[in-house]
# Entry
Amino acid sequence: MVTSASASASAAARAAACRACAFSYSCLRLASRGAHTAVYRIEIPTLLPAPVSDRFSVLPQYIIPKQALTSFAGWVSSRKRGRVTTEIVRRFVLKYQVNMDEAVNADIASYLTFNDFFTRALKPGARPIASADLVSPVDGAISQFGPITGDQIVQAKGHNYSITAVVGGDPVLAAQYEHGSFATLYLSPKDYHRIHMPCDGLLKRMIYVPGDLFSVNPLTARGVPGLFARNERVVCVFESERGPFVLILVGATIVGSMATVWHGVVNPPRGKVVRSWDYPSDRPAIAIKKGEEMGRFLLGSTVVMLFPEGPLKFNPEWAPGRAIRLGEAMANYA
# Structure
């Protein structure tokens, strides 16, 4: 149940909420703490302009029916179509040069649906887990990483977004990561699409934040302001020996759904309501070890990680655009 905020809420209060999100938009929050739900009305953010070529390149994404296209893709990917499914998988493997020798099941004809193939498991030992304090949770490419300036996270050159916005509008949660560190990792269609833990973690909270479904490829990251804070996402809050951290699964066009190992499929259903699940200490703990699976995407997307202020040193070999593999060293605490 969602309760309405008082109709007499002041313009100053709303403006403060907007400043917390670090966007130039009108933001109205209707929340019920008891029910752990919230509703947001958000207009298009106004940030620093992207290069003209990038803005023109992403214009079609503002026009196409992204929700309908994504729902259709999810429906097709989940259908058992026999030889048709096998042919789709075969062409995908050829186009993207997928290494099926790494998969537990290398027989493409045995996958009943495209989703079964896309979320295929890897053979044990296919991704050795480094001894670093934090390891890469995915196969993919580095989008951006580094320090958080105040509450501002770098999306691309000329584009920032706020911690408050990306975690779904919770200023208390966001404040824990001000002046901290972040890493944004992009998964292309060819990549392995299960997400694993960067370190041991105890689940404390999960938040589903509704939003857009823009593509999350590098071109779109340069051309769409506030991309990762406006797309649909699942925010997972963990506690570790070194303190709290956040792992965010960001949805995108054609990403039919996102799932976690403790909850199953989080979306669909899709809606306009922020949903939150708490996992307090008086309930059975959901503890996941470093390198173990925590969730998965159905088709390509992005993972954003947030860490609180502290002596975190990223792998000196890391750089934006660099390819990464699950389990490789990401960072150490000094």
In short: The chain has nine helices and 20 strands. Residues 127-333 form one domain.
